[in-house]
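Practice problem 4.
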């Protein structure tokens, strides 16, 4: 999808802030818009398609609030952290009570440069964004990294984790660009709000890949140690299943 759809960063993009990071590029998740401002946001984005397909709807930037303990860059009031994931609506369900349920697919990392606060009839904020990844090439397959990932995922206790089965299958078939695989693993392995945000704000695919390999190795060690002690293998909220 990301290789065929382009985000127009010359236009302001609607901001949908949440308390923490929930989505990365090349991953998808369901959201429910229930506050009036975010119901309006979804409706305005859908209206922008002008009779076209759902993918022609305007993009939505999933942002996160900068809480009291946040010491990094912030913007707007209430303040937002500057890194966001720009998403597209790939499925929409209008609920009887006026809420909207949408499946959002992450498209791109970006940084908020300026914020337009609510004005007139518009209840939600808009952001002028700059993409964090400025490379022009299509998502790639990286055979050396795939071999390393396949080795780690196929050894020890990790090979018994059913949640990782789709990723092993993608690598084996070569049906998904390696960068997509890495993003899926980043989403699974990054735990805690600070780490999840740092991985969203990280522009280097090489550093994200290094994070994934390090975390997989660490998780494998934890699971192996638990298995040797006869405990039910679990770590960081992950289990074999």
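Answer key:
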């Amino acid at each position: 999808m990301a290789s065929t759809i382009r985000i127009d960063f010359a236009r302001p993009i609607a901001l949908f802030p949440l308390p923490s990071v929930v989505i990365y590029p090349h991953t998808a998740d369901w959201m429910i818009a229930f506050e009036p401002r975010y119901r309006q946001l979804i409706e305005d984005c859908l209206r922008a398609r002008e009779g076209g397909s759902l993918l022609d709807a305007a993009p939505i930037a999933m942002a996160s609030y900068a809480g009291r303990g946040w010491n990094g860059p912030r913007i707007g009031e209430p303040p937002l952290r500057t890194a966001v994931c720009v998403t597209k609506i790939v499925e929409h369900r209008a609920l009887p009570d006026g809420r909207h349920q949408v499946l959002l697919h992450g498209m791109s990392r970006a940084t908020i440069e300026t914020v337009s606060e609510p004005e007139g009839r518009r209840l939600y904020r808009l952001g002028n964004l700059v993409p964090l990844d400025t490379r022009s090439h299509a998502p790639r397959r990286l055979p050396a990294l795939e071999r390393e990932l396949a080795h780690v995922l196929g050894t020890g206790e990790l090979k018994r984790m059913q949640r990782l089965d789709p990723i092993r299958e993608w690598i084996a078939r070569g049906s998904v660009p390696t960068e997509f695989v890495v993003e899926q693993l980043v989403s699974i392995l990054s735990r805690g709000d600070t780490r999840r945000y740092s991985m969203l704000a990280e522009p280097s695919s090489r550093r994200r890949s290094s994070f994934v390999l390090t975390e997989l190795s660490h998780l494998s060690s934890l699971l192996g140690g638990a298995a040797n002690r006869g405990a039910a293998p679990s770590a960081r909220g992950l289990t074999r299943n």
